[in-house]
Structure formats: structure tokens, C-alpha cells
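Lab notebook, page 48
Experiment: co-folding of the full assembly
Goal: obtain a model of how the components sit together before planning crosslinking
Operator: M.T.
Materials (sequences as entered):
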Amino acid sequence: MEKLIEQLSICIESGKINRNSGYPPQLKGQDGADEIARQALESGIKPSGILEGCMAGMQRIGERFGRNEVFVPELLMAAKAMNTVMEHLKPYFQTGEVKRRGVFVVGTVAGDLHDIGKKLVAMVVEGNGWEVIDLGVDVSTEKFMETVGQKPGCAVGLSALLTTTMVNMEKTVKFIRDKYPQTKILVGGAPVTLNYANQIGADGYAPDPQGAVHLLDRLAS
Amino acid sequence: MAKSNVMTGRERIRAAMALKPVDRIPWLPFVGCHGGALIGKKAGDYLRSADRMAAGAAEAVRRYRPDGLPVAFDLQIEAEALGCSLVWSDENPPAVSSHPLASGRAFSDLRIPAKDEGRIPVVLEASRMMRKAHPDIALYGLITGPFTLAMHLYGTDLFMKMLEDEKSVHDLLAFTRDVGLRMADYYTDAGCDVIAVVDPLTSQIGPDAFQKFVRNPASALFSHIRSSGRQGSFFVCGHAQQNITEMCACKPDNISIDENIPLDYVRDICLENRISFGGNLQLTVVLLLGSPDDARRNAVECLETGGETGFILAPGCDLPYATPPSNIEAIAVMLQDPYQLEIAKALKTGPKTRDLLDMSDYGQTGKVIVDIITLDSEACAPCQYMVESVRQVAPEFEGIVEWREHKIKHADSVQFMTSLMVKNIPTICIDGRIAFVSQIPPRERLIAAIRRRIYEKLQYKIRTRRGEILILGKNDAECDRAMPVLAQALRELGVEMPVTAVTDPGQILSYGVAVTPAVVMVHYKVKAEGNVPAAAIIKEWIKEIQ
Ligand code: B12
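Observation: model returned without errors.
Model output:
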């Protein structure tokens, strides 16, 4: 039992999706996240235990990314492996047997088309047990407002990579604050700083996906 | 360094890229969409018109005196010609918003764009216009790097494809390399001197992936550029420190980086590989949001780190549209004037605020003090003329005006200068107040300024005049006899002043008086109010009454 969870976390960390996938070369021909998740469920491991195994793998790769030991491709593969496990867990989320930590609505603000950083944050947060609604890039304030309206109690993540679009971030924060004052809002992106986050009235700033997960967990509890 | 400005900008950049000696460090302001701001056009209107880009470049040449300029800083030109949709904005280059290979277009359908597709004819026309108008400036033709162009065509799933399906990524990069080879030819034929391969997305992969996917296509581009008699530069914007060694292995003539990578790190690796390098003025914090002082300081840091071999001073990447021109001009002026450069170097480490002198009482002596802040009048012509102008006028005010030169090569002069809030060299201060900045005042204006100050002081003196008259006598009668005379004098002057009789022999002696009657004038003068000034200032006052 323990062993399956351990194997699963290794699959996530190294981005091993399934038996057929050729990446990473050193795990070629072996079972991947897909197969191991199924075996784990069949052998009676609790879905919440499986989720924890994934999170451990995701945390390790997230930290290596933060240390510049791996880069965007590797992190994206890990997130993709994580997603295949999520497919297996979906029914349990629906019955409420495993609880989502919350809903995270994320997008890159209006006028900004940078999506790599936002995508990583979305995938890693999802891999840590959140339901993620990724609104994509160039997302208008209205679109964010509409989604927050539909998902009461959600947390929001705004990404901006351009100094020229940081004003749109400020505007979106302000509008959400005015109408949904309880909503927790995180901001990030290369030019954004903690100072700026405070200045525009956001609840938090994180420099990387792992930081975003910690922050969300703190704000949600 | 040799004598300034004996090379043309074009020669200077060519030499620096070949690691040959230069008469001064070449200067390459990346004026892309910012050229639109210079001529009052939106980015979208600018990057779609050859005339406007040529006009923007002309304005940049006039104001920024560059050694080299990019024709267009727009990484979407090839992508657009290949069928990516663009989103235009007013203050940024356009952005790719759809990726043909991710939305059903077959790879085999892609064709290398011809000269007349998309905006390629516009930028080629702009190159020809700029070549003609600025024969002495190095023109940079920017092509989209193979990896970034692949990402435009396929979207960010390309990252995962690199791990899951290497072959198709190699195929795609072979195609984007071929697009680059053709674009390099187009720009070469249109008169560009340098072809820059701009590949910012490589900042998001590690050295292993770089070597596997990017090294071959990039090397092919640089060897082709060299064989056409042009020089090749490799630009990255972003955290690409992990790949600098790999970039050198592609054998470009030059590598240009932004502020995310330490310049000394790049310098060491590049020079070891006999490759020139450029960068890395800070785009946002300094050039966009800072002041001309910040810009100069940042440029001096870059120059000191870059050194004199193979270095080209440039912003980290495309200048933001709204960059205040005064920040770029400050760097341009400084670079081309060795004095300005020396001044900036001397001032780079200005004193901290807490070390500043309290100057609020400076200049309250009887004399008028003229301070000239210079680099060193022997080494700097404008400084010399300014000192000379004061030297010639001073005798007119013999005994009233005292002048001195403060050479900021000395640390205490820098402190003095900063305390007086002097920002430019040379500057004349009269009694601690800035009077003439940078310009040498004509004789009459300098005389008038000093006169004005003398007059001000006189008025102040009258306002603050306080006195008392003492009559010293053996007894009251002796004193009383003197009273009417004093009263008359005061009356005739219209002045009120207390007159006090002193008859105590001890007190009389303390004034040094032996024979009575005697008159002592006591003169009180307010020198400082609300604070006690520094000892240095008080010493000046004490000298005055001795
Ligand atoms: C890749 C890139 C591009 C790609 C984008 C591809 C894509 N699909 O996203 C392309 C080439 C298309 C591009 C286009 C442009 N770019 Co660009 N780009 C970059 C580059 C090199 C890397 C950005 C990136 O993806 N980083 C990798 C990710 C992983 O990092 P990240 O985004 O910072 O995200 C991390 C954290 O910030 C955080 N995070 C991010 N979002 C969030 C959100 C939350 C809630 C939290 C908690 C955390 C968080 O977690 C992430 C993971 O660690 C940067 C350089 C740089 N220094 O960042 C320039 C940069 C951002 N681009 C810049 C510019 C100017 C442009 C263009 C205007 C110019 C152009 N056309 O060439 C266009 C703008 C298009 C538009 N309207 O949006 C400038 C911005 C300058 C400024 N301060 O305004 C930069 C800084 C380059 C530079 N030095 O000039 N760009």
C-alpha cells in the first residue's frame, strides 16, 4: 500500500503519465501515474491517500523548479501526470468522499497574453487538491466578476507580466473587492511584488506555484 | 581609451563585436515601439508603416545619438505571415493570439514566407529608408528565434511535446530555422549590418533541452549570417542564465541579455568564448520608472562591469513605449562626453542622506561666499571656464566676496555638493544657493547675481540690527551730562536704542576703560534662530568679530 503511494509520487515528480509514455526515459516500459492510481484504488487505498501521494510528488518537483534544477517543460509534465490521476479521483470528488480544498479561479489580466506562468500556477494548484477554473489569458474584469458570482466562496488568482497591464490587475482587484468583499485574491507574475499586492489591496502575492499553494491553504483555513 | 568619436557608429559596433579596440563603448538603444511614442503614434500604427518607423528612427538618431538601432523590434512578423492572428495594442508590440498548428493546420501546409507577405515588405522598406538616411549607423534586422517562432506556431504545449515527441519538435524547429535563414537574407539585402536572432522563450528551458533542440538551428543561423558578411547577435530576454554557455556554443558574434542575468557572469563566459556581449540597462525600474540620474547611474554600473573589450551598452530588451526620452538622452549625452561620464562615475556613490551637512545657516557671514562645484577645473573645460568667470569678477568685490572651487573628485566635495542639492557639474552657488547650472554666466549676470546677494544681506542686517549704548561715568552726574548728545544723535538718525549708564568701577574696568566719561557701543546680531549651527559655521562668525 505504502509502496504504491510512494511509486505514485515518483511518477508525478518525474512526469511519468502512463505505461506507454516514453518520458522520462529511465522509467520507460514501467507503469505510470495512470496505472498506479487505478491499482491503488482497486487495492482499497482511500482516494484522500492517493491525493496526498500526488501532492508530495508535486511539492518536490515544485521545489526543484524554484531552485532552477528543472524548467517549465518538466513542471508541465508533472502537472499533466497529476491530471491523469485527477481523472480517477473525479467520481470521489463528486460524491464528496474526497473534499476539494476549494475553488480557485485564475487568469491573466486584460491586455496580457502571457500564459506560461499562470498555467503552471493553475496546474500545480489543481494538483494540490483545488478545483481550478482557468479563464485563460486576456481576461476582462467583467469575466472575472461573472465567474466569482457563479462560484461563491472561491479564491481568485490574477497574473500579469506587463507593466502596462498591471493597472488592469488593480482594477479587477478593486471591482471584486467592492462587490464580493470576502473573496480572497492572490496576484503574481514577473513584475508584481508583495508591495504592489498590498498597494492594490490583494490578499497575497507568491513568486511561484508552490508559494501560491501555501498561500491558498493559509487563506482558506 | 583613444580619442573620442573618431569612428562611426557602424564601425564602432562592428569593431566591438569583433573584440577589437573601440574609441568608446558603443551604444545601442533598442528603440522599437518606443519610436512610435517619439513621433506621437500608437504602437499599432507605428509597426505597420515603413514611413513611420523611418521617422521614429530619425527622431531616435537625433535625440539618442545611437551607434546602432533595430529596424523593428517585433517578434510577431514571421508568425503573422505564417497565419498566427495578432492582437494589437497601443503601447506594446502586437501579441500572437492563435497558434495555427494547435488549431488544425497541418505542419506540411506551412511555407516559408516570401518577401511580400504580411508585414515583411514594410520592415524591409523601413530598413532601406533607414540605411539611406543613416549610413553611419549599424542597423539591426531582428528575426524571431527558432524556438520562439515554434511556440508561436504550436502554443505552449510545445514544452510538453519536447519531452513526449522529440522528432516532431526537431522537424518544427528545422522549419523555423529555415524561415530565419530566409529572413536573415531579406534583411541583409535591405542593408542591415547585424542580424539579431531574438529567442526569449529559450529562457524557459534548461541547458539540456537547449542543447538538444536549439543548438543546431541557432548555429546554422549564425554560420549563415557570418557567411553573408554580416554579424549575428543572440538576444534573450528573461532568466536565461542557465543557457549562456549553450548560447556561446551556437557561435554568434554577440550575446545580448537583460537585467535578469548578472552582466559580469555573461562577460566572463562570453569573453572566454571570444564572443562580444551587450546589455543590460534595467528596463522597468530604471528606464521606464526612474529618473535621468538613475539612468546615468545604471549606465555607469553597466560600463564599469562591461569593461572595454567587446561590450555594447544596451537596454535589456525592447524599450517600453512610454520610456521618458529624458532618461535615454541622459545616457546618450553622458556617453559621448567624457567629462559627463567622469562626473557620473565620481557621483555614483553619493553620500547617504544621513551624512549630509546641515546647510541652512550656510552663507550667513558678513562675506558673500561663491562656491564652484567642478569635476576638476584642470581636467574639464566647462569647469575651467566657470572657475575663470568667477576669478575675473571677484576683484570687483574685493574683501566682500570669497570664492572657492570644490572638486568632486574628493569625497568631502561630493558631500558638500549633495548637501547643497547640486545635481549638475559645473554649478555656481552663491551663499549656498544654486545660482548658475552648467552654463558659464556672462560677466554682467554674475556681477548682478552677487550684487543682489550683497543687497539682500544688507537689508537683512538692517532688519536684524540690535544695539545698545553704554555711558561709563564716575557717577550719575557725569553720565547725565553725556545724555543729551546721544539722544540728539539717535533722534537725527530716527533710531531707537536703549542708553544705559554704568557707574560701577569694576564693570567699567572690564570694558578696558581707564578714564571716564566713555561711550561703548554694543552690537547684538542674530545669527541663527531655532537651532545651533555647525561649529564650522560658528567659526566663520567668530573670525568676523575678532
Ligand atoms: C515568454 C515571454 C513571452 C512570450 C509569451 C508566450 C506565452 N504564451 O506566454 C511571447 C514571446 C509571446 C511574449 C510576448 C510579449 N512580451 Co514577453 N516575455 C516572455 C518572458 C521571456 C518570459 C515570461 C514567462 O513565461 N516566464 C516563465 C514563467 C514560468 O514565469 P512567470 O510568468 O513570471 O510566472 C511565474 C511567477 O511569476 C508566478 N506567477 C505567475 N502568475 C501568477 C499568478 C498568481 C496568482 C501567482 C500567485 C503567481 C504567479 O508563478 C510562475 C511560475 O513560477 C518575459 C521575460 C521575463 N523576465 O519574465 C518577457 C516579458 C514578460 N515580455 C515582455 C514584453 C514587453 C512582451 C511584449 C509586449 C513584447 C513582444 N511582443 O515582443 C509581448 C506582449 C504580449 C501581450 N500583450 O501579452 C516584457 C515585459 C516588460 C514589462 N515589464 O512590461 C518582459 C519582461 C521581457 C522584457 N524584459 O522586456 N513574451
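Interpretation: Chain B touches chain A through 23 residues (CB under 8 Å).
Next step: discuss with group before ordering constructs.
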